[in-house]
């Protein structure tokens, strides 16, 4: 998996940290409370930006803490942006599907579709959280990543591949709430990626899909399955 200077760390479930130079970016930062996240990662000291796919607690996670206490800029769907602002977050950029925003380290980030539900889990129950999404992150001089968030397989993934040409896809494979390995393998082919990082598996017993099943479904495709260990960075 070619990261061209980008450091990528899977933090369990769908949480991912990216570092480029002195910039730190989180995607779906469910840290504290995530049984797959190393305890040493629960309270980061610096975060420049958060890209959020949707409002479910196992993705929203530590977003409010990172925004309010570390002044991270949050990029998310409009309805969640409104909620975060009401909760005291000062640097929030609301966007919607098809929109592209400029983030730190020169990243160009495009919000794309996902097929899931999008309620926002709060202490006061589930609030309307807009629709779920995925993110395509294009780093200057580096790779283009696609974080699918929570989704099932859908045919327009081929358009994501055609328009943004991601090199690496971070795809949920656990099944039940998202794609299983068979669907994720088909997604990887539609996207035309060189490598897949499996996410959203094994955190709970119900998420039975495995990287081994994904690799078997991709046999002969030439697509690499990069199985990472939570908290252990690759690249950089």
Q: What would your notes on this structure say?
A:
- The structure is a single chain.
- This protein has a single domain (7-230), classed as Metallo-beta-lactamase, Chain A, CATH 3.60.15.10.
- Helices cover 19% and strands 28% of the residues.
- It has 6 helices and 16 strands.
- The strands form 3 sheets. Strands 6-5-4-3-2-1-16 form a 7-stranded mixed beta sheet, with helices on one face. Strands 7-8-11-12-13-14-15 form a 7-stranded mixed beta sheet. It has a two-stranded antiparallel sheet with strand order 9-10.
Strand segment count: 16
Total domain modules? 1
CATH architecture type: 4-Layer Sandwich
- For the biggest β-sheet, the strand order reads 6-5-4-3-2-1-16
List the secondary-structure elements in sequence, H or E.
Answer: EEEEHHEHEEEEEEEHEHEHEE
Main CATH class: Alpha Beta
Overall pLDDT metric: 97
Task: Give the terminus-to-terminus CA distance.
Answer: 12 Å
Which ranges are low-confidence, i.e. pLDDT below 50, for 5 or more consecutive residues?
none
Helix content: 10-25%
CATH topology: Metallo-beta-lactamase, Chain A
């Amino acid at each position: 998996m070619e990261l061209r200077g980008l450091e990528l760390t899977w933090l369990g479930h769908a949480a991912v940290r990216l570092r480029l130079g002195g910039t730190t970016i989180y995607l779906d930062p469910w840290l504290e409370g995530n049984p797959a996240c190393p305890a040493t990662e629960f309270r980061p000291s610096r975060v420049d930006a958060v890209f959020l796919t949707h409002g479910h607690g196992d993705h929203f996670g530590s977003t409010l803490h990172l925004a309010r206490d570390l002044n991270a800029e949050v990029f998310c769907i409009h309805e969640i942006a409104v909620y975060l602002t009401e909760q005291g977050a000062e640097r929030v950029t609301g966007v919607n599907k098809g929109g592209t925003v400029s983030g730190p380290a020169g990243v160009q980030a495009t919000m794309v579709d996902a097929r899931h539900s999008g309620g926002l889990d709060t202490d006061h129950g589930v609030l309307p959280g807009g629709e779920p999404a995925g993110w395509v992150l294009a780093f200057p001089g580096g790779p283009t990543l696609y974080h699918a968030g929570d989704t099932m397989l859908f045919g327009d993934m081929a358009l994501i591949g055609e328009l943004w040409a991601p090199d690496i896809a971070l795809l949920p494979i656990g099944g039940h709430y998202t794609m299983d390995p068979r669907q994720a393998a088909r997604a990887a082919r539609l996207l035309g990626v060189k490598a897949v990082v499996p996410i959203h598996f094994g955190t709970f017993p119900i998420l039975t899909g495995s990287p081994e099943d994904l690799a078997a479904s991709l046999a002969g495709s030439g697509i690499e399955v990069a199985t990472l260990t939570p908290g252990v960075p690759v690249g950089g």
